[in-house]
Design a protein that fits this description.
Layout lengths: L6 E7 L16 E2 L2 E2 H10 L4 E8 L15 E5 L4 H15 L5 E4 L9 H14 L2 E7 L4 E5 L2 E6 L5 E10 H13 L7 H7 L4 E5 L12 H15 L1
Parallel strand pairs: 1-4, 1-6, 4-5, 7-11
Antiparallel strand pairs: 2-3, 6-10, 7-10, 8-9
């Protein structure tokens, strides 16, 4: 980071885990004796140069206070949707930092992210002075559906699967999200908000094992990936 810009991390963690079919939010499920969120935060805090981590939690979250955490971590109350939580977190960062600061937004349910890839993302952003995201080229054949039938095959050329972290200037992302939320525009990740605002976003190749835990079968897969990562280290 430069003398005029700090690096923050923002983790939206206010989700309820509806798609997992469980009462407990997925970020608090256990892998190898630790919660998904604990593993995710430890990965993020291992990256050099980070000023603070801001975690957006559900109102009256009963779990976060029980976690074993260390590092400069702050919490804010999130919202009903991911974009609302990110916006609340960005508002907190603007109160305590500057619009010129950088922020890495990362899914709480991506504990398999590789710190080396986060460092590459940061280096690319600072080198190009432009927002960027971790992503992986799509390898599967894609089908567009018409109900239960295939309408047609979609070319996977030029298609990438968006991962996190996604890194942008704090002020730029805050303004883009505000505009999208005020106009009820569809925002599924931070890059989409910047795209809608006409901004440039770069792609930085990521490992395919940076999976997001969304379905029950993802949890044991994440455990296998984490075990392999630890063994490789």
């Amino acid at each position: 980071m430069t003398a005029s810009a700090d690096l923050w991390v923002l983790v939206p963690a206010a989700g309820s885990g509806r798609r997992m079919g469980i009462s407990q939010p997925k970020q608090y499920l256990q892998i190898q004796g630790k919660t998904v969120l604990e593993i995710t935060l430890a990965k993020l805090l291992s990256v050099p140069g980070i000023r603070s981590v801001v975690v957006a939690l559900a109102e009256n979250d009963p779990y976060f206070a029980t976690l074993s955490l260390s590092g400069n971590i702050h919490t804010v109350t999130g919202g009903a949707e991911r974009a609302d939580s990110v916006f609340q977190g960005l508002s907190y960062i603007l109160e305590h930092g500057r619009k010129e600061d950088w922020v890495l937004v990362h899914d709480a349910a991506r504990p398999c992210v590789r710190p080396d890839n986060i460092r590459r993302l940061i280096e690319k952003v600072l080198q190009e002075n432009c927002g960027a995201i971790l992503a992986a080229p799509v390898s599967d054949t894609l089908k567009k559906a018409d109900g239960e039938n295939i309408s047609h095959t979609v070319s996977r050329e030029y298609l990438w699967a968006a991962h996190t972290p996604q890194m942008f200037r704090v002020g730029e992302l805050h303004a883009a999200l505000r505009k999208a939320l005020e106009n009820s525009l569809p925002v599924t990740d931070e890059a989409s908000a910047i795209e809608l605002a006409g901004g440039r976003v770069m792609l930085v190749a990521d490992s395919r094992d940076n999976i997001k835990i969304t379905q029950p079968e993802d949890l044991p897969l994440a455990e296998i990936i984490l075990h392999q990562q630890i063994s490789a280290e």
